[in-house]
Amino acid sequence: xxxxxxxxxxxxxxxxxxxxxxxxxxxxxxxxxxxxxxxxxxxxxxxxxxxxxxxxxxxxxxxxxxxxxxxxxxxxxxxxxxxxxxxxxxxxxxxxxxxxxxxxxxxxxxxxxxxxxxxxxxxxxxxxxxxxxxxxxxxxxxxxxxxxxxxxxxxxxxxxxxxxxxxxxxxxxxxxxxxxxxxxxxxxxxxxxxxxxxxxxxxxxxxxxxxxxxxxxxxxxxxxxxxxxxxxxxxxxxxxxxxxxxxxx
Length: 249
Description:
A hairpin with a 4-residue loop joins β6 (123-131) and β7 (136-142). It is globular and about 45 Å long. The protein is α/β, with parallel strands linked by helices. The protein starts with a strand and ends with a strand. It has a single domain, classed as Alpha-Beta Complex (Spore Coat Polysaccharide Biosynthesis Protein SpsA, Chain A). α4 packs across α6 (153-163). It has ten helices and eleven strands.
């Protein structure tokens, strides 16, 4: 499995960290230079973002989204069937190599567009599970973060078409769940955490953004297509009553 880590070229400390972390687990990682949102020109933002002024998105979020889309483009161009994508503040658990082998085998057998979240999800479906040897795959219910996830080529190509120009931020997994046919799994136990004191500045920027504007825009994008509305209400009416939702501890 190919391994990519997103890192800003100006942040040598974080690059050193993620290289060390991957080396510790014998992961051959390729560093992908992050798109630095604050360096984007107004013309670039107009071209690459669907409706920046109305979205309430921060430039950091835009840079993050474009960075991940660049990896999906690389996967498509180079026919990379599956990849582990990390951010440079990731801390990796010891069983990662075994888990990667198991998930890749499962993914190949299924052959469906899929994303496997290795970070701590907010909530997952406890009674929808697929046990592998070292980890269990659960149906995703709610969560954020892009510090560590696996994505296959079919899912990457769907997101390339669906998320560009940028209309949502990279870690809005619920939007992807309801707006595409991509399967999203939460991997238990959590395999990727964030190094304390090395958290992304994107979260801090989000806290300063206009919350009401963001909420209105997210609803507009989520419910702007009949397809999304049907999937959203089908999920909550036909499926949600039968799901036992659990929080990651």
